[in-house]
Amino acid sequence: MAFYRSHVLICNGKDCVEEGAKEVERALVKELKRLELDNEIKVVDTGCLGPCEAAPVMVIYPEGVYYGNVQVEDVAEIAEEHLLKGRRVQRLLYESEEDAEIITPYQQEDVFPGEMRIVLRNCGVIDPEDIKQYIGQDGYKSLGTVLTELSQEEVINMVDESGLRGRGGAGFPAGLKWKFTNQAEGDEKYVVANADEGEPGTSKDRLIMEGDPHSLLEAMAIAGYAVGANTGYIYIRGEYQLAVSRLQTAIEQAEEMGLLGENIFDSGFDFKIKIREGAGAYVCGEETALLQSIEGERGEPQVKPPYPPNEGLWGKPTLINNVETLANIPVIMEKGAEWFSEIGTESCTGTKVFTVSGDVEKEGLIEVPMGTTLREIVEGFGGGIANGKEFKVAQTGGTSGGCIPKDLMDTPMDYDSLAEVGATLGSGALLIMDETHCIIDVAKCFMHFFEHESCGKCLPCREGNTRMYEILDRISKGEGVLADLNKLQDLADVMSNSALCGLGQAAPTPIMTTLNHFKDEYLAHITAKVCPTEVCKDLTVEQEEEYERSETA
């Protein structure tokens, strides 16, 4: 086995690859050979390192030094100065607040000061294609403890007492799902990891799987033991090919070492995991549509009850959890329910991973305790609004989430606090928009997405999204009337109360929050026939003047 004095981890996340990470990697490998350092330093492809605005990003261990915006022409300097002579290249260092508090239960230097990395504990730290590195971070230790020392009831109680809630959007208590599946009668049961992640602006699950695939496998095996299942499925978007490849490699490695398969840890427990790729349908993020897709049927939501814990995949009891939810499980088993429950808020424990994007100085992936405020995320982790602009609105939870205005920036980012202001935490997508955006244009984009992605099975969603888009389109062209606002509200009420699945029920949420918080902007388009941000091209100065003349007449 080769021993290296340094490891250089190069981010292979989407943003870094697009900015030339592969070219940087090839140049570094070539440079290390030239300097005869290739036997001392290992170059590793890893998952997302977090600061996407600084792509391409690399980190050098054991020092834990982050370099950002690395170009091919910078590689020789990094190799000669840092890797050969031990001197950091100051101009390329990823800047952070050196004196800021870093909450780190795993004694690692988190990417963003103030982060608490539980789910992302290994991302950017290990080689995701080397199971030995995962084991070196106490990987599969929790599975061994569970299978040799704990009963099914004890495992479920730990999850329940931790207060962990589902991180896929609904926030349902994970322990209850596990308990229901365990108590359901069936000769066969299944565990399904929902890795579909179709919400625009969300990429956390992909980056977890790309950077730390074994954490998902270990969690699924623990869940399988707890509920009495011997087979697990990972339902993943077909576009996530790097994640698929790394998961497949991880499964093969785990099986080879006896950590998946038959008689794991000589406990008599068998568990195997299969991967099923989806075709990119947004609706397949809904659990019953997902199960239909795995079975080879058209992915459409089903009427509930029965619920999956009682009658799921092929009519058998099935536990479905989101990737981020499952990634917490090995840590809860290792550190205990009480430790986890003390993080975050009383009703929303633990941490939350957010994908921060839009008009901020620093885009990327962060993990912070539940209850961290929107202001702390935007101004602290996001570095504030870019280009000297003012904050206008944050869309939380992806397209089906709500829109939070400036006067609510101190709202804690947890399920209950956001529900109080009419928004949702959802999948953890945070799209930040500055003052230059037109709220009508933004709302119209939301509804255009839902109009396209509706599966069409139920009338409220199929017709409601189309009608709402048409109304917003008229308003953006100066053709709206005040009655349209009542129509939007009526349509939203019908959809939220009668759509077949949660996706259809949540579709009106962003429209209603924009209407509640930005009604003046709607009225400007309808009554004054002007777009305050000058985004809506049909509302020209000439049209405004014509409107004023008609009013005078």
TrEMBL record:
Gene Ontology MF, one: NADH dehydrogenase (ubiquinone) activity
Residues annotated as domain NADH-ubiquinone oxidoreductase 51kDa subunit iron-sulphur binding: 440-485
Gene3D superfamilies registered for this protein in UniProt: 3.10.20.600, 6.10.250.1450, Glutaredoxin, NADH-ubiquinone oxidoreductase 51kDa subunit, NADH-ubiquinone oxidoreductase 51kDa subunit, iron-sulphur binding domain
UniProt-listed SMART domains: NADH_4Fe-4S
Species the sequence originates in: Selenihalanaerobacter shriftii
Name by which UniProt lists this protein: NAD(P)-dependent iron-only hydrogenase diaphorase component flavoprotein
Family assignment from sequence similarity: Belongs to the complex I 51 kDa subunit family.
UniProt entry keywords in alphabetical sequence: 4Fe-4S, Iron, Iron-sulfur, Metal-binding
CDD domains found in the cross-reference section: TRX_Fd_family
Coiled coil feature spans: none
Any matching Pfam family: NADH_4Fe-4S
Domain of life: Bacteria
